[in-house]
Amino acid sequence: MTTKGEKKKKEISLDRTKKDQITKKTTESGFELKPSYGPRDLQDFVYERDSGNDGEYPYLRGLYPGMYRNILWVSAQALTRETPEKSRMEQEVIWEHGAATFYFSSGDVNRTGLDPDHPLAKYDIAYSPENYSYKRMERSLQGIKLEEGIYTFHGASSQQDDVLCVAQLATIADLWGADKTKIRGSCINDPIDNMATAFSIDFPFEIGMRLHGDLTEYIVREMPTFSPFAAIAYDLWEAGCNSVQQLGIILSTLTAYHQIALDRGIPFEQVGRRATISMASSMDFFETVCRIRAARRMWARIAKERFGASDPKLCRLRIAIRTPGQTITRQQPLNNIARIGFQALAAVLGGASAVDYARHDEAFCIPSEESSMVSLALNHIIAQETGVGLTADPLGGSYYVEWLTNKLEEEANKLMKEIEDMGGILKVAESGWLRRLVNSARDERMLALEKGEQIQVGVNYFRLPDEKEPEIVEYEFDDMDKLQADLLEEVRQYKANRDIQKTRQALLTLREKAKTKENLMPYIVNCFKADATRSEILGMIREAYGYTYDTVDMIERPEFLN
Amino acid sequence: MDKSDRKIRVLVAKPGTDSHYRGAELLCQILRNAGMEVIYTGRYQTSDMIVNTAIAEDVDVVCLSSLAWSQEKYYIEVANMLKDKGSDTCVVGGGIISKKAIPKLKEAGVTGLYGPGTPNDVIIKHITERVKKERWHEN
Amino acid sequence: MQTEQHFSASGIPIKDIYTPEDTKDLDYDKDLGIAGEPPFTRGPYPTMYRGKVWTIRRLTGFNTPEDSNKLYREQYELGQTGFSVAPDITTAIGVDADDPMVEYEIGHSGLPLNTIEDVDVAFDGLPIDRVSTYLAERGPITAMYFAVAEKRGIDLKQLRGTTAGCMISWGVLNIPLQPPPRGYRRYGADFIEWCSEVAPMWNPICHDSYNVRDLGLNAYEELGMLFASAIDFVEEEKRRGRIPLDRFVRRFAFNTAAHNDFFEEIAKIRAARRIWYKIVTERYGIQDPNCAKFRVHVQSSGSTHTAQEPYNNLIRIAYQTLAAVLGGAQSIHANGYDEAVCLPTDQSMLLSIRTEQIAALETGVTNTIDPLGGSYYVESLTNELEERTWEYIKMIEDMGGMAQAMQDGWYHRLLREKPIERQQKVDSGEIPIVGVNTFRSEKEPYKVPIFKPDPAASREIQAEKLRKFREKRDKAKHAEAMKRLVEACNSDENVYPYVFEAVKVGATFGEVSKAQVDAYGVWPYPIGL
Amino acid sequence: MDESKVKILMVKAGLEGHWAGLIVVSNALRNAGFEVIYGGNMTPVEVAATAAQEDVNVVGISSLTANYMLTVPAVIKGLKERGKGDVLLLLGGTIYEDDFDALKKMGVAGIFTPGTPMEEIINFVREKTSAKVK
Asked: Does an interface of 3+ CB pairs under 8 Å exist between B and D?
C-alpha cells in the first residue's frame, strides 16, 4: 500500500463535494430527460404496429425468434500483426475462442493507397500485413478452404481498400479454383462515409460511387453469399455525430445504395436480404441500446414502404457493433475493461448481430496478447455468465427504452427528410453539406470535452498524478528495422521479377476500361493476377478520371506504364 | 516588438501515413485559443516537407502529431534535420508515445511527449516555456 | 444457451420473449408507481441518482488501524464517498490481539479494533461528520466510534452510518466464542433501541444476505432469508415492546450481493423494495411510508470471481455493479478483481472505485430513474421473484423464524449443502465459468501484481499497544464499568448504555464481548460434513 | 490400492471463516472414496493432535487469508513432534505463487489454488497415497 507523507496526514481535501453530484440529465444526443418514464410516455405506442415480437416485422425486438437463445451474436476482433503469418496465428487463437470470421484490417499504408516502397510510407510499413499484392493476402490464408471461412473487410474505413481487398480475395479464389459463389463475408464499400468524415485518402467521390456500384454488381453476380456493402456509422460517431445524425445519415445512405443497385437492374431481393450497417456503441448505455433498436425498425419500414419488400425477411437489418477506441483512455488502462464491457453489453441488449470488441490497451500500444485474452473472455462472460441472452430483447417494454427508441426514430426521420429535401444523400455528400454537418458535430464534441462536460473518469475527473499511474505493459514488436528492410526488399523483388509486359497490359486495359461504363472489378482482378500492386491499380483508375497517379501526389507514374 | 506581444509561431505537422487528424486539429485550436500563430501542414508529410515548411515560415516550434508507430523515427528525423540546417526551432511531439522511445526522443531534443488526455494548459505551458528559453532566450 | 428449456440462475423458467401479455395484470400505480412513492418498486427516493449518485463504499481494512487509516485516506482521495470498515477475524470473534488464541490472524481480511484508541486512529483525519461509515460488526465498536465522534465534537444526533449486526451474515462466519442466535439477537435488539435514543440517524442494523448468497443461495432464497431475518428483529422488538416500531424500522438498512445473472439481480432489488413495503405496511401496519423504504447496499459477488485470468473479474464486477445501479442501490461496493488471487492491491482498489465512477458518470444510466421499469421481462421477473420470496419467507417462518431456524441447525445444514451443490453444477458445466470450466486457457495466464500482508508484525504492534493501553487506563473506573456491564448482561436491561460507559473508560472489545458471551454461553455450531 | 483405506483430515488452520471451499473439496474427496474427517476450524496444535489420534494419511489445509505462512509451519512442527512427519500435506486456497517454493521446502506436497478442477486434487491424492498405503 502506498504510504502518504506525514505532513499531509491531518487534512484531506474536501473540495470535491460538487464532483459527487450528478447534474447531467440529458442523453448523449442531448435529449432532456424526465426524472422517470411511465406508461403515459408511450400512449401512442401500439405493440403490434411499433414493436411486434422477436423475429417479426418491424423487427424492433430482434431479427430472429428467440434471438441469442438460438443464434449468438458473431464475435469479431479486428487484429493485425506485423506479417501475414503472424496475423494468421492471432486469428487462430481467436477462432479457438469461437469467433468465426477472418478479419482483415488494413494498416495506414493501405488506407492511404500506397505501396510499401512509397517514400511517405517508409517508416510506417510492416506494422500490419501490407497486402500490396494478392500474394500477401494469400500468405495469411494458407491451408484454408476458402468456402468455409467468413471474411470481413471492415478495418480500414476506406472504400478503395475494400474494393482492392475483395478483388484480392476473388483473385485468390480464382487461382485456387475455389467456388466464389460459396464464399461468405462482408465489406463496407461506403464512399459516402468517406465523404462525410474524410478519414482516409480515398477515391474521389465520382470514382467512389462508380466503384461502389461496380463492386456491388460484381459481388451480387459472382459472390452471391457475400455482403456487397454496408452503411457505416462508426466513423461518424468517432467524428462526433450524435445518434440522430448517425441514424439519419446511414439510413439515407443505405437507402441510396439499394436504389443504386435497383437502378443497375439488381432486384431488391438480391441485396436487401443482406442489408447491413455498422455502428459504434458509445458510453451512453441506453442510447446505444435504443440506437440499435431504432435502426432496425427504421430500416424495416423503409424496406417495406419504399422498396415494397414482399417478404418480411427482406426487411431485416443486420447491425454490427464495434466498441469505439475513442472512449479508451491511456490513464489507468484497466478501467477500459469496464468501459468496453458496458459498451458491449449495450450492443447485446440492443440485439446486435455482431460485436467487435476494442482492447483495453489500444490507447497506448498495439493490443497485447493479454488484452486480446480479456476481450475474448468479455464475449464469453456476456454469453455464458450474465444470462442476458436468456430471452429476446430483455429491455422491450421499458418505458424509458421504448420512449427513447421512438424519439431517436422520430428525430432521425426528420433529418432523413431534410436530406431528401436537399436532393438526397449523394447530393449533400458531394456538395459538402454532409462534411460540414460532421465537422460542426466534431467541434461540439471537442468543446464538450474541453469544458469537462463530458466526464472521463481518471482523465478529467479524479485524475491521478502521473507517478501514481499503474505500470503498463507494451506490446513488443519484432525487430522493425529488419522487418521494414525485408519488406522493401520483397516489394522490390516482386516488382522486378514479374512479367512486366503482362502487368503493363492488364493495367493499361484497366485504365482504358475505367473511361467506359464497364464494370471494373474483373479488370482489377486481372491486374492482381498479372501481379500489379495496389497503388498501380489505383493510379490507373485515377488517371482515367484525370487525377494524378499518386494519391498523395508525391511520386510519378512508374516508367513501365508510360 | 514588445516582448509581451510577441506571438509564438507554431507549425503543427503530421508525418507519415497516419490518418488520425483529430488530435492535430484539436491541438491547432488549443494553441490558437492560447494566442499562438498556428500553421497546420495537413496530413501525409515527409520529414523533408515538414522541415522545409518550418524554415520557410520561421516558426518557433514544430509540434509533431502522430498515432502511428513511425512517430519515433519521424520525430527524431525532423529534429535532426532541423539541427543540421542550423535551425534552433524547438520540436515537441505528442500522440501515444511508447515508454521505450521516450529517452531516445528526449536525447534528440524532442520534448513534451504528452499522451492523449493531457490537460491543455500543460501543453501550452510547456511550449511557451521552451520557446521562451531556447528560442527567444528570455529568462 | 443451447438447451431447449431455459432457466435463470435461480431456476426460474425463462420464455423466448416477454410481451405486453406478460404484464397485462400489472397495475402501474399500485405495483410500480413513481420513485419515492409507495410501493417504491422504482426507487426509494424521488430523485434517485439525479439528486445524488449512490455511495461508493468499499469494505476494507488490513494489518493495523494505522495502516488501514492510510488506506481509507487513499480511497477517499480516489473519490470514494463513504467509509466501510472490516474488522479482522480476531475482532469478529471478540478477543483482543494479545490473546494466544489469535496468534496467526491479526490483520487478516480486516483490521484489528481492540480499543477506543484503535478506532480513533483508524478514523484519524477522516471527515466522519460529513461522510457516513459502515462498521462490519455488531455493536461494541460502534459504541467506541460514537465515543470518538463525541470527543471530536460531533453531535451524535447527526451522525450517519450503519452497523452490520446481522444474524444471518454473522452465522456464516462459523467463528468460535459466539453466543447462540437468541443471545445474538438480544444484543442486536438492545443496540437498536439504544441507537434510536442516542444516534437516531444511525442505522443500527444492516440485514445482510451477502455471505449466504455467496455460499450458493439463489436470488429469491437470498431475499427470503434476508427478510425473514429482518422480520425476526421486528418481532423481537414487538415482543419487548420498549420502543414503537416506526422509530427503528425506518432505520433498517439492507445489504445484498450482486451475482452474475444480470436481469435477475436487477429484478431482485426491485422486488425487494416492493416486498419490504408490504411487510412494513401490510404486516405491521406502520403508516409512515418512510419506514417502508428498502435502502440497500450492494456488493459484487466474490464467489463469481476466478483466479484464472484475473482481469476477467473486472468484467464481472462491472456488470454486477451495473445491475446494482439499474436495480437502484443506495450504496455499492465493487470488489477488487484480484480477490481470488490475493488481498486487494492498490491497483485493484483504484479500479473498483473507478468502475463505479465510470458507471455513474460515463454511461448515462443515472440520467433517468429506474430505466428498465416497464420492460416486459424485467417486470415479469420482478413479479416472479417476489412471489417466490414470499414462499421462502413463509417456509422460514413455519420453522419458527430465522433465529429459531438457526438454533435448530437448519441454517447451517443448508449452508453446508449449497456450496457442494454449486460445485456440482460447476463440475457438470451447468454453471459456466469462463476461464475455469469453459474456454479454459492452456496458456500460462498473465501475471497481476499482488499484495501480501505481514501478520506477524501486526500482532506485535497491536499487542504492544494493548499492553500500554491497559496500563494507562483508570483501573478503578474500568473495573466498576465492567462490573455494571456484566450485571446488565445478566439482566433484562439494555446493555448498550453500559457498553458505552465501559469503552469510554478503557474497556477493550475483547472484554466487552466476553461479558456478553458469558451471559449466554458459547454456542457450538451444528456444522460439519 | 484401496481408497477407503486412505484417511484424510480436512481443516482450516486458524480462525478465518471462509469454509465453503473446504466443504466442497472434502465432499469431493469423500465421493471419490476416501475416508474424510472434516475438522473445520482448528488451531495448528489441534490439527496435529487430531491427525495423530486418527492416524490419517493426508492432511488438507485451506487458507484464504495468507495466514498459512504462520500456520503451516506450526502444523508441520506438531505433526513431527507426534511422529506424523510423513503425512501427505495439502494446501489449498489463495496461496501466493512466490510462497510455493518455501512451502514445498517445508514439506507441503500439493498446492491447489482456486478453480483447480476437483479431479486434479483427487488424482493427486490417489497417486501420492498409492505408494504409501499398502
From this structure: no
Q: Tell me whether residue B5 is exposed, middle or buried, using C-beta atoms within 10 angstroms of its C-beta: 0 to 12, 13 to 18, 19 or more.
A: exposed
Question: Quick check: C364 contacting D, CB < 8 Å?
Answer: no
Q: Are residues A403 and A492 in the same domain?
A: no
Show me where the domains of chain B are located. Answer: 6-135
Q: Write the pLDDT tens digit of every residue in A164-213.
A: 999 999 999 999 999 999 999 999 999 999 899 888 778 899 999 999 99
Residues of B in contact with A363 (CB under 8 A): 96, 115-116
Q: Does residue C170 fall inside a structural domain?
A: yes
Q: Is residue A359 part of a domain?
A: yes
Complex ipTM value: 0.91
Looking at the structure, tell me whether residues A486 and A410 fall in a common domain. no
Cβ-defined contact of C90 to D16 (cutoff 8 Å): no
pLDDT in tens, A455-476: 888 888 888 877 777 776 777 7
Q: Each residue of A230-262: pLDDT tens digit? A: 999 998 998 899 999 999 999 999 999 999 999
Q: What is the 3-state secondary structure (H, E, C) of A476-490?
A: CCCCHHHHHHHHHHH
Last residue of a domain, one of A398, A415, A432: A415
Task: Tell me, rounded to whole angstroms, the distance of Cα A45 from its chain centroid.
Answer: 33
Please indicate, yes or no, if residue C213 is contained in any of the structural domains.
yes
Angle at C52 between CA C38 and CA C383, to 5 degrees: 35
Full domain range(s) for residue C362: 20-412
In a domain, C236, yes or no: yes
The C-alpha angle C91, C97, C103, rounded to 5 degrees, equals: 105
**A22:C355 CB<8 A:** no
Residue A107 falls inside a structural domain? no
Same domain for A396 and A280? yes
Query: Comparing C-alpha atoms, which of A82, A80, A79 is closest to residue A478?
Result: A82
Per residue in A44-81, pLDDT tens?
999 999 999 999 999 999 999 999 999 999 887 767 78
Question: Are residue A257 and residue A393 in the same domain, yes or no?
Answer: yes
The answer to whether residues A185 and A226 touch, using CB atoms and an 8 Å cutoff, is yes
Range of the domain at A277: 20-73+231-244+252-415
Instruction: Quote the number of domains for chain C.
Output: 1
pLDDT value, residue A102: 83
Contacts of A548 (CB under 8 A, 6+ apart): A542
Nearest to D17 among C104, C174, C528 (CB): C174
Instruction: Delineate the domains of chain D, giving CATH numbers in brackets.
Output: 3-76+94-132 (3.40.50.280)
C-alpha Rg value of chain C to the nearest Å: 23
How is domain B6-135 classified at the architecture level of CATH?
3-Layer(aba) Sandwich (3.40)
Whether C340 contacts chain A with CB within 8 A:
no
Closest approach of chain C CAs to the CA of D71, in angstroms?
Answer: 7
Which pLDDT score, from 0 to 100, does residue B2 have?
A: 52
What CATH number is attached to the domain comprising C337?
3.20.20.240
Nearest CA-CA distance, residue C356 and chain A, Å:
9
Question: Which pLDDT value is given to residue B126?
Answer: 96
Backbone angles phi, psi at C35, to 5 degrees: -60, 145
Cell of A433: 453539406
Q: Do chains B and A touch (3 or more CB pairs under 8 A)?
A: yes
Nearest Cβ partner of D66 from C108, C175, C427?
C108
Contact B117 A200 (CB under 8 A): no
**Nearest Cβ partner of A394 from C1, C354, C377?**
C377
Counting the structural domains of chain A, the total is 2
Instruction: Provide φ and ψ at D38, rounded to 5°.
Output: -90, 110
Instruction: Dig out the grid coordinates for C429 from the structure.
Output: 458445466
What's the pTM value of the predicted model, to 2 decimals? Answer: 0.92
User: So what's the pLDDT on residue A103?
Assistant: 82
Within a domain: residue C402?
A: yes
Phi, psi of A67 (to 5 degrees): 40, -120
Looking up residue A393, the CATH number of its domain turns out to be 3.20.20.240
Residues of chain C with C-beta less than 8 angstroms from the C-beta of D40: 174, 525, 527-528
Angstroms from A108 CA to nearest CA on chain B: 6
